């Protein structure tokens, strides 16, 4: 264990409290562990601020959403895009969760919608996405099954 590991563990142990559902004995044990770690690694009582963690999504959420509309996401690195019809394209940034819809026009394109996160894109797709019709059935619902 190195100093950065100890700092991470101390921060986690500081979150142990009765208000978060821990028993008084567990809270006391966490406080004792904090003191031991601070002495062992010579951590000052004023710890350096924690770097904010960046929430990183995976492409699975976006692919699942677009798959509901029969669209295929093309991606490269942390950027993805999907064509909606002939004139609209959704551009997605995985690292920030930002998305935008551009409508192609002669001589360029215009931004027609933008948002952050899968749920806001879901709302956009419900209102302006392609209509999806189910003409197939699952194999378990098939009328003629071989037994």
Care to describe what's here?
Residues 137-147 have low confidence and may be disordered. This protein is an alpha+beta fold. It has 2 domains: 3-40, no CATH class; 59-128, no CATH class. The N and C termini lie far apart (60 Å). The chain is built from 4 helices and 5 strands, in the order αααβββββα. The protein has a 5-stranded antiparallel sheet with strand order 1-2-3-4-5.
How is the topology of this model organized?
Elements (H helix, E strand, L loop, with lengths): L2 H12 L9 H17 L18 H9 L6 E3 L2 E6 L3 E6 L4 E8 L2 E9 L1 H11 L19
Antiparallel strand pairs: 1-2, 2-3, 3-4, 4-5
Helix pairs in contact: 1-2
Note the main attributes of this structure.
22% strand, disordered C terminus, 4 helices, 147 residues, alpha+beta, 2 domains
What is the overall number of helices? 4
Could you report the average pLDDT, rounded to the nearest whole number? 81
Beta strand %:
15-25%
Give unreliable regions as ranges: 137-147
How far apart are the termini?
Answer: 60 Å
Structural class: alpha+beta
Helical amount among residues, as a percent range?
25-40%
Shape category: elongated
Give me the Rg, rounded.
25 Å
String of helices and strands = HHHEEEEEH
Number of domains: 2
Number of strand segments: 5
Q: How do the strands line up in the largest sheet?
A: 1-2-3-4-5
Q: Main sheet? A: 5 strands, antiparallel
């Amino acid at each position: 264990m190195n100093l950065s590991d100890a700092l991470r563990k101390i921060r986690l142990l500081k979150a142990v409290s009765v208000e978060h559902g821990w028993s008084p004995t567990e809270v006391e044990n966490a406080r004792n562990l904090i003191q031991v770690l601070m002495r062992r690694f010579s951590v000052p009582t004023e710890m350096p601020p924690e770097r904010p963690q960046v929430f990183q999504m995976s492409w699975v959420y976006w692919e699942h959403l677009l798959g509901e509309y029969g669209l295929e996401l093309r991606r490269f690195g942390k950027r993805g895009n999907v064509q909606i019809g002939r004139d609209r394209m959704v551009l997605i940034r995985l690292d920030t969760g930002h998305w935008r819809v551009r409508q192609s026009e002669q001589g360029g394109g215009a931004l027609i919608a933008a948002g952050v996160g899968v749920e806001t894109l879901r709302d956009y797709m419900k209102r302006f996405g392609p209509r999806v019709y189910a003409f197939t059935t699952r194999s378990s619902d098939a009328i003629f099954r071989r037994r």
